[in-house]
Specification:
Layout (H helix, E strand, L loop, with lengths): L3 E7 L13 E2 L2 E2 H12 L3 E6 L2 H9 L4 E3 L7 H12 L7 E4 L9 H7 L10 E7 L13 E8 L2 E8 L11 E10 H9 L4 H6 L3 H6 L4 E6 L9 H10 L3
Parallel strand pairs: 1-4, 1-6, 4-5, 7-11
Antiparallel strand pairs: 2-3, 6-10, 7-10, 8-9, 8-10, 9-11
Helix pairs in contact: 1-4
């Protein structure tokens, strides 16, 4: 039996939306909304990993669990690993879900789907994708595309991730959703690896795992959760979460 933990990395370093994790959405900080979505998923224990005392206080005031981490982590994955090692030094939690702290409107069911591919012991990492329906997104470099092969209904094996339009030819294109579920040992291996050539070239962290021969399977969902990066995104999130 697996025992997953959801870890939400959060820091104050956003430039387009200063103090983003504490942005107010109907009387609650955005990070608290994300924490609530994670709880609603029913996946398991939830904690917020942060280098900000203000974020930690906001989470704890809502009844959540926060772990203070170093400020110099190069990525959210490194912050998540430090937090889970601190919070669970005995290794009870064997699956670690890395949920971005700017997904206040994510459907909790999508978080639950992210862990399902790990029922297969051959899978190291699981993530999500959705079919692209917007023509502009098919060529937008800001939209990361999954190149994969279907291995079961609603499940794919990742072969590559790219900012380019791919693959060519007729058929659907898939928008990668940046939510990951790692086996604990796979996360430990991943953060120990140096950035890989394709990761540096595409600026996509998950290519480090692909280049190292780690298997990533993908749960296909019917929508793309929208992150909050700009003031306009925050307005939209407030509309979507209006009671």
């Amino acid at each position: 039996m697996s025992d997953p933990i959801v870890v939400i990395p959060a820091r104050m370093a956003a430039t387009r939306l200063p103090n983003k994790p504490l942005a107010d959405i109907h009387g609650k900080p955005m990070i608290v909304h994300v924490w609530q979505r994670a709880l609603e998923s029913g996946v398991g224990r939830v904690l917020v990993a942060t280098d900000s005392a203000d974020i930690a206080r906001a989470v704890e005031a809502a009844g959540g669990e926060a772990v203070m981490t170093r400020a110099d982590h190069p990525s959210g994955s490194d912050r998540v690993f430090e937090a889970v090692e601190k919070a669970d030094p005995d290794g009870r939690h064997d699956i670690v879900v890395n949920l971005q702290g700017d997904f206040p409107t994510i459907d909790p069911r999508a978080i639950a789907v992210s862990v399902l591919p790990l029922a297969d012991p051959a899978v190291d990492i699981a993530t999500l994708a959705a079919v692209i329906v917007d023509e502009d997104e098919m060529t937008a470099p800001s939209v990361v595309k999954l190149v994969g092969t279907e291995i079961a209904p609603g499940r794919m094996r990742a072969l590559y991730f790219t900012r380019a339009r791919a693959p060519t030819g007729p058929g659907p294109l898939y928008h990668h959703v940046g939510l990951y579920a790692y086996r604990r040992r796979a996360l430990a291996r991943f953060v120990s690896l140096p950035p890989s050539p394709l990761e540096i070239r595409e600026k996509l962290e998950q290519l480090r795992a692909i280049e190292a021969g780690m298997r990533i399977d993908v749960g296909v969902i019917d929508h793309v959760p929208r992150g909050v990066d700009t003031p306009g995104d925050l307005v939209l999130a407030r509309e979507l979460l209006r009671a």
